[in-house]
Every structure is written in C-alpha cells, then in structure tokens.
Specification:
With about 450 residues, the protein is α+β, with helices and mostly antiparallel strands. Among the domains are: about 150 residues, Adenine-n6-DNA-methyltransferase TaqI, Chain A, domain 2; about 150 residues, DNA methylase specificity domains (Adenine-n6-DNA-methyltransferase TaqI, Chain A, domain 2). Strand 17 and strand 18 form a beta hairpin.
Length: about 450
C-alpha cells in the first residue's frame, strides 16, 4: 500500500475530523405542534431513510408542512447532496438528499450535514457514513441514556481519513457499481417472490393435468366440481388434517436439568422457522439429549414430516430433512403413505388465515390440537403423481429464488470487503500505473460478473 511516512497514511490522504469537512451541521427545528397539509414542503423522518443510504421515493410516504412555516427555519431546509443522519432513538441511519427533495425539512431526531465539496465528494461521503469505520465511532460517542442521543460537538470530532477528490470519485464509482448490482438483484428477488405467490395460488387450487398444464376452469369447466371448499378439480377430494397423517404436538424438556440439553437431537422453536430460507429444516439453535426427549415424552419426527407453527405466529411450515423434535409451539404431521411431503407443506401453509380464525388466547394466539385436526385441505388422491408434479414446479421456482439470494449475499460480502479496503486506504484505486494491489472500475465489474 502507498504510504506517507510522516502521517502513516496512504500518500495524499489527510486525517481530518468530520467537523472540518462540513459547511453546515444543524439540528433542532422548532416548528413543534404545527398542522400538516396535503401539499407543501416534505418533511424527512428517520423511518424514511433506507438501508442503502437513500431516501424513500414514494411521495405519499411523506408528511408536508406549509411553505411559510418552512421559510421561518432556513437551516433545516435541505439541498441536493446534503445528508440527514438520525441522532436520537435509532441512531446512525444515513440518507443522501436527492434533487427531488431539495427544499425539504428535517425533524428533531435528524441532523443536517452539508459537506464542503472541495474537500468531500458527496457520493464518497455516502459510503463513508455507512461504513463500519464511521458507524463504530458513532456508537462510541452515543450517550448512554434511556434514549440514545448523539451530541453535535462529539459528532464533529469523529475522525475521517480523507483521500484526494480524484480518488474519492473513483472509490465512489466502484462502490456505486456494486450497489447497482445489489439493487438489481433485490428487485429481481422481489419480482420472483411476487410471481411465486401467483404460481402457488394457481397450482394449489387448479392443479396440473396429465400433460403438466394448469387446468383452466373457464375454458374447461367440466374438469372441476363443487365441494365444501368451493370449486376444485374433479380428481381432487377434501381431506381433514387427521386424514392425511398422524398429528403430534411438540414439547420442551425442563430447562432446570442441564443433562437434557446440548445433545445430538435437533430441537426447534418457531423462532428457528422465521430464519428459514427454503422449505426444509434440519435443526435450530438448540439440541437435546435422548434423556431430554424421553423426559417430556417428546416425539422424534422422522424425515419428511411437516412441522407447523400453531402458537403466536401461526401457519409457518417446513419439511424435516433429518429426525428432530419441536417445542410446544408446533403441531406436526407425519404423513401417511402416498402423500408428498412438500405438496402438503404448501397446502397447510395456505391455512394460516383459517388457523387465525380458529385460534384463541389473550397474550398470544394459539390453535388447539382439536381445532387443528379439523382443518381441511383440497388435494389429489394419495399416490397421485400430480402431487409430485405440483411440488416440483414450486420447488424449481424456489431454487431460482434461492440462487439469487445466494448471489445477493455474495455481492453484499464483496461490498463489505471493498468498503473496508477502499475507505481505509488499505487498497488503493488505480489512477495511474502505480505499484501494489489496486482496484479499477473495470475489474470490479468483472468481479461482479464472476460472482
């Protein structure tokens, strides 16, 4: 790495403070108790700051104050390429002001930062303010009160290693390139998930004919029949949960007995279900011993069982990839012969709203075992290849989503590494043919494509 021997920093970089690089640092608008209007000057609040350092784009998400009120407080009026930083409550959220929000105002929980553009390029500043280097310093100066608060003098004192402007431009371009790839991937994942919802509805209500095509109730009404649950394919029937398999409840060994815990048997809770990225589960944060399993008469579920959350969060489902046990927040189904576990997993997840209707409880909702086994699904007869066809069609789509989510995780890891290297000067950017390991925009684009 290129070093300046006197300052022990990359050559040409200067150690400054945040305050030294700002033209404006202002907080505390005083327009409390005003009435909001339908049209006027938008007000930026902390919840409108996005994770990537941008601001909410939908105009309907904003509140508005009238222009006369805004004119009284000129220092809280924002300009394009200013920054807003949350400094009270949830601290550290950063947003760069776009051109369309020029003139907007801030609330008292935010602070306005306006950089001196001869020292700091705004696009570089966005990445710096989001970096672990800045955020860790911000956490260190946060006052330890009931409500977290950052004081302006301490904010001004935060250290900042400042590259020359031409290097800031190149660093920002490289990091922006990764951000754009992340945004495109996030948008694709959102689109695929939306498509999945429509696909699920069609496959689980219309099914597939012998040619693997969706049945069409309009073009071919003769392929459907009436049932207690509405129109269903002729080949399908209505089944209660207790007709498709054995229903068993989860339970928990005593926490007071250490030898019941830390064994080799996976044991899951609804919290573990909320972390799933696909339709299968093999374990959770905890495990139990054989004596723990026996102590509470817990059921060791075989591979291919369906676990269903029936307390607090209702209707989360997954298929077991290995033998495991669950806590009392589950009702579990060991399918009878002829049933496709993945198909049943999707069908039972559809019953979430019906579970809520039948649930009771004050502290949290819970559906009883009696009510659970009375739930009904529509399905092809056991042993039908249609169940597998439907499950496979959904599984293929899930695999596409999973692949994109893995790619997104790699991009975020790449971004994290680049931020550490480039914003600290550990690795330089190639402006000329300097020596050492350095990044160029072209090389970064190629790296993204390789991922």
């Amino acid at each position: 790495m290129r070093k300046d021997k006197e300052e022990n920093a990359p050559m040409g970089w200067e150690l400054s403070t945040l305050g030294d690089c700002l033209d404006e640092l202002y907080r505390y608008p005083t327009y409390y108790g005003i009435k909001y209007v339908s049209k006027g000057v938008p007000e930026i609040r902390g919840e409108l700051i996005e994770e990537d350092g941008t601001l909410e784009k939908k105009g309907e998400a904003y509140r508005y104050i009238d222009c006369k009120t805004a004119e009284i407080f000129p220092k809280v009026r924002l300009e394009a390429q200013d920054f807003v930083l949350s400094v009270r409550g949830t601290v550290g959220k950063v947003g760069m002001v776009p051109e369309q929000l020029s003139g907007a105002v801030i609330t008292a929980n935010l602070i306005r930062l306006k950089f001196n553009k001869s020292l700091i390029w705004p696009k570089w500043a966005r990445h710096f303010l989001l970096s672990a280097f800045f955020q860790n310093q911000l956490e260190a100066i946060t006052s330890a009160t009931t409500i977290k608060t950052i004081q302006v003098p301490k904010l001004r004192s935060i250290a900042l290693l400042r590259p020359p402007i031409h290097e800031q431009l190149q660093i920002a371009k490289i990091l922006d390139t990764v951000d754009e790839a992340i945004q495109r991937t996030e948008q694709l994942i959102a689109k695929l998930k939306a498509i999945k919802q429509g696909l699920l509805h069609d496959l689980l209500t219309r099914g597939l004919d012998e040619n693997g095509q969706l049945r069409d109730p309009i073009a071919h009404p003769e392929q459907f029949k009436d049932s207690t649950l509405g129109r269903i394919p002729k080949e399908w029937e209505v089944y209660r949960i207790n007709e498709i398999g054995k229903v068993v409840s989860g339970t928990t060994p005593s926490r007071m007995v250490p030898q019941y815990w830390g064994g080799t048997i996976p044991w899951i809770t609804p919290t573990d279900m909320s972390k799933l990225t696909n339709d299968y589960i093999s374990g959770g944060q905890d495990s139990i011993t054989q004596s723990g399993l026996e102590s509470c008469s817990a059921n060791l579920l075989p591979i291919g069982s369906i676990v269903v959350t029936t307390r607090a969060t209702l209707g989360l489902t997954a298929v077991t990839e290995r033998e495991l046990a669950t806590n009392q927040g589950f009702k579990n189904i060991i399918p009878n012969d002829g049933w496709n576990s993945l198909f049943l997993c999707y069908k039972i997840h559809e019953l979430s709203n019906e579970m809520i209707k039948r649930a009771s409880g004050t502290t949290f909702l819970e559906i009883s075992g009696t009510q659970f086994i009375l739930l009904e699904i529509t399905a092809p007869v056991p042993g039908s290849k249609e169940q597998s066809m439907i499950a496979n069609a959904i599984s293929v789509h899930n695999q596409r989503i999973e692949k994109e989510e893995q790619y997104l995780a790699k991009l975020k890891l790449l971004k994290k590494g680049l931020m550490h290297d480039l914003l600290t000067g550990k690795v330089g950017v190639r402006i000329d043919d300097g020596e050492g390991k350095e990044y160029t925009l072209k090389e970064t684009t190629e790296k993204i494509e390789e991922e």
